[in-house]
Design a protein that fits this description.
about 260 residues; Pnp Oxidase, Chain A; about 35% helix; 9-stranded antiparallel β-sheet; single chain; alpha+beta; 7 helices
Length: about 260
C-alpha cells in the first residue's frame, strides 16, 4: 500500500480499533502450487488479540477460520504438508507458514471525489483532478494453520475461535444484551461444522494505516469537499464529510506541532 506521510496513520491503538470496528479482512497468501492459483484471497472475519490494551506499540495476533473446501485452504494444507513431509507423517497441526501473509481491512465509507468540489484551486488555475477517498489498514504477519481435525490443538483453537468470533458479531456488531451463543446450537452440529473448517492464527509483524481523506488539500478546497459531500444528502455523503473534516483537523494540528 502506498503510504504518503500526509495520509499515514501511525498510532497503533487507533489501528487496532480500526480492525475491531471493521473486522472483515481480505486474507491473502502467495503459495506455489500445481493445483491452485499462486495468489489467493478470501474475505474472513477476524478476532484481534492483544495482551496489553494500554500498550502503544503491541500489534497483537489475528485469529480466524476458513472453510476446508476453500481452494486457499487446500493450497495452504498442500504446501505445509509438502514442506513437513520429512518431519511429520501426514503433517500435524498446528503448522507454520514461512512466508508472510497479508490481511487488508477496509473502512465501509469510501467515495469518488469530483473536481467540482474544489472551490479554491479549480476557479484559480483549473489544475485539479478527480480522486477517491478511503481508509484501510493492512497487516503483515506469520501464519499458523490449525488443520488436523483429530488434534487437540485444533479442537481447542476452533472452540475458542468460534465462541470469541460469535461475541464479536453478537455484542460488538449487533449490540445484543442477550447474544446468541455457540452453546445454543446442538453440540453434534457444532462438531460437524468444526470438521469442515481450519483455524488460522497470524502473529502480526507489521501494521500500516492509511486515511486518504483530502488532508493534502488547502483549507478552501477541503471545505469544498466537506460541503460537497454534505450536499449529497446521503448517509454515506454525511459520514464522508465528517471523516474529511476530522482528518483535516488532525492534519492541521500535526503541521502546527511541527512548526512550533
Amino acid at each position: 500500500m502506498y503510504l504518503p506521510d500526509v495520509y499515514t496513520e501511525k498510532d497503533i491503538p487507533a489501528l487496532r480499533n480500526f480492525i475491531r470496528s471493521n473486522s472483515l479482512g481480505i486474507f491473502t497468501t502467495a503459495i506455489e502450487s500445481s493445483k491452485h492459483p499462486f495468489i489467493q484471497s478470501s474475505h474472513l472475519p477476524f478476532v484481534l488479540d492483544v495482551e496489553d490494551e494500554n500498550s502503544p506499540t503491541e500489534l497483537g495476533v489475528l485469529r480466524g477460520h476458513m472453510a476446508r473446501a476453500n481452494p486457499q485452504s487446500k493450497a495452504l494444507i498442500d504446501h505445509i504438508n509438502s514442506v513437513a513431509n520429512d518431519e511429520v507423517e501426514g503433517g500435524d497441526s498446528p503448522r507454520k507458514l514461512e512466508r508472510d501473509v497479508l490481511v487488508l481491512f477496509n473502512h465501509p465509507i469510501q467515495h469518488y471525489v469530483t473536481p467540482k468540489f474544489y472551490r479554491e484551486t479549480k476557479p484559480k488555475t483549473g489544475k485539479v483532478a478527480p480522486t477517491w477517498n478511503y481508509a484501510a489498514v493492512q497487516v503483515y504477519g506469520k501464519l499458523t494453520v490449525y488443520y488436523d481435525s483429530k488434534a487437540d490443538s485444533t479442537e481447542d483453537f476452533l472452540e475458542k475461535q468460534l465462541k470469541d468470533l460469535t461475541m464479536v458479531g453478537e455484542k460488538g456488531v449487533m449490540k445484543y444484551d442477550e447474544p446468541w451463543l455457540v452453546e445454543d446450537a446442538p453440540r453434534s452440529f457444532v462438531q460437524i461444522l468444526k470438521k469442515a473448517i481450519i483455524g488460522i492464527e497470524i502473529e502480526i509483524m507489521r501494521m500500516d494505516g492509511k486515511w486518504k481523506m483530502s488532508q493534502e488539500m488547502s483549507k478552501g478546497d477541503r471545505e469544498g469537499v466537506i460541503n460537497g459531500f454534505r450536499g449529497l444528502n446521503s448517509d454515506v455523503g454525511t459520514k464522508m464529510s465528517d471523516i474529511v473534516e476530522e482528518r483535516g483537523e488532525m492534519s492541521d494540528r500535526k503541521k502546527e506541532a511541527k512548526s512550533s
